[in-house]
Amino acid sequence: MPEACTLPTVDQPLRLAEFDELFATALRDQRRLSPTVLRWRLDPAAEPVARDLTARESSCCAFFTFTFTTSGEGEQEAVNLDIQVPPAQVAVLDALAGRAVAGMAT
User: Please, what sign has the CA dihedral across residues 43, 49, 51, 54?
Assistant: First the structure.
């Protein structure tokens, strides 16, 4: 498994903008489950976008593991997205967590 992202440098700002858009429009909550696992609670309407985005991210940053689950019902329903990295990539997860909090929908 590659230890680094293989996304071309020119494309990285575009990908970050896609994550920022997800945070601003759909991120309801973020929790750190462990040093290597982060959980985002997303608006269920954003699940297709989040699945597409994480699939593309997995193709260039193979150290990420993205897992989707659903919780709650009705207005309380949410999609949980768990992001896991190996211990060597905790700094990357930390940076992603910070970016998510900064851009989170209010």
Answer: negative
- Hey, how many other C-beta atoms are within 10 angstroms of the C-beta on 55? 10
Query: Helix crossing, 12-26 with 90-103: angle to 10°?
Result: 50
Cβ neighbors of 74 (< 8 A, separation 6 or more) are none
> In CATH, which of 2.60.40.10, 3.40.50.11540, 3.40.220.10, 3.30.1360.40 is domain 11-103?
3.30.1360.40
Asked if residue 79 lies in contact with residue 46, where contact means CB atoms within 8 angstroms, the answer is: yes
What is the secondary structure of 51-100 as a DSSP string?
A: HHHHHHHHHH-TT-EEEEEEE--GGG-EEEEEEE--GGGHHHHHHHHHHH
Report the chain (106 residues): mean pLDDT per 10 consecutive residues.
50 74 93 97 94 86 90 80 94 90 78
> Strand 37-42 and strand 65-71: pairing?
unpaired
